Structure formats: structure tokens, C-alpha cells
Amino acid sequence: MGQLTLWGRLSSCNVQKAVWVLEELALPYERIDAGGDFGGLDDPAYRAMNPHGTVPTLKDGATVVCDSDAIIRYLAASYGRGSLWPDAPAERAAVDQWLAWANASLYRDWIDLFWMCVRTPPERQDAEGIETRRTRTAERFTFLDNELANRPFVAGPEFSLADVAAGMTLYRWFEMPIERPALANLDAWHDRLKQRPPFQAAVCIPFDELVGKLAH
């Protein structure tokens, strides 16, 4: 294992996913604040590593990985064989399909809701738009709640990267000033995640610094 370095501010939800996996695997790493108020994403040295100018970016010795899902897959494959990302193709596919669902379905309306409800100053908020995204996000969580009636974790009986991708949204979902449907299975899953110190360390981060801030 080379020296693991992660660039990205901890208030970034995508950075939180990477940190969560690093902590789950008990890997030694250095995190360097970047993005948001910390800036640095347009620095030539950073762009040489990550031409997209986004966070997070992971460097493992000579290997550089961009994009949060690519990073968590890389970490699991390199340092968590058989745990967070199963080796068996069918089991790995079960995890991958939920990673895809989290990104394509859950995340889109959830992040729009967060931006519109939290990061937009009150005088500029669109109440109708907020309600539309809240409803859509609630529908996604209701769908997940139904799935969790049959198993303790998103992709099966064991905790996996699928729980990281979907579970990263929970702290903000429950902390936003919105109405939420009562979903017993989702709540039970949330309680299971809250028992994991890496979830608390990486995800349960107050987002006061982002309130009313559209700049980043």
C-alpha cells in the first residue's frame, strides 16, 4: 500500500462517501481540504491529477483515482477483498446495481432538494420546486423502505458499498427542515448505520457552513 491521500472538504457528500470507506477499512490516510471555501480545484497541480476539477481525488502511491464511486470501488477492491464489494460476480452485481440506483435515482432529487432547501437563501427559495423534490425523494426512500423489508442492508444480509452510496444521504435527509414519511424499515436501517463509528465520523457532519451559500 502506498501513501493514501484524499483531497476534498468533509462537508462534500461525495467526499463523505470516500472517507466512510477509508474508515470502514481502517486505512491510514491523509485528507487535504479542497473545494468550497478551501478552493484549490483550479490549481494546475490539482488539475493534473483530476482534470474535472472536482472532489474527491484519491492518490495511492502512483495511482490517482477521481469520482467518489470509482474511489470507493478501488478502495474496496484493493484493501477490502470480499467485504464491502464481494468477489462473486452475482453478489458484486447486486451491489453495483444499487450503486447505480443511488446515483441515477435517489441522489439527483435529494441533492437538488438540499440545494434548494438549505443552500439557497430563504428569499430566493422556490417553494413549489422544493416540494416537488421533497416528494420525489420521499418516493425514492419509500421504494428503498419496501426493499429493506426483506433484508437488513441495501444489497443483502451484509453491509456493503451499496449502503455507503445510499446511506450517505440519510443525515441530511433527516436534518433538513422538511416533512418526511414514516418509514419503519428505513429507520431501522438508519439505526444500524448509526451504530457504525465510520458512519458517524464521515456522514453525521452538521452542515451549518453550507446554509444559504450558493457559491460552492
Describe this structure in words.
The protein is of the alpha+beta class. Helix content is 52%, strand content 7%. The chain has a 4-stranded mixed beta sheet, covered by helices on one side. Helix 4 packs antiparallel against helix 5 (127-147). The radius of gyration is 17 Å and the shape is globular. The protein starts with a strand and ends in a 14-residue tail after the last helix.
Provide a compact summary of the structure.
With about 220 residues, the chain is an alpha+beta fold. About 50% of the residues lie in helices and about 5% in strands.
Helix and strand topology:
Layout: E1 4-7, H1 13-24, E2 30-32, H2 44-49, E3 57-60, E4 63-66, H3 68-79, H4 89-119, H5 127-147, H6 161-167, H7 170-175, H8 184-194, H9 197-202
Parallel strand pairs: 1-2
Antiparallel strand pairs: 1-3, 3-4
Helix pairs in contact: 1-3, 4-5, 4-6, 5-8
Shape: globular
Count the E strands: 4
Could you describe the largest sheet, including whether it forms a barrel? 4 strands, mixed
The percent of residues in helical segments reads 40-55%
Distance between the termini: 33 Å
Q: What's the quaternary structure here?
A: single chain
Fill in the keyword field for this structure:
single chain; 216 residues; alpha+beta; four-stranded mixed beta sheet; 4 strands; globular
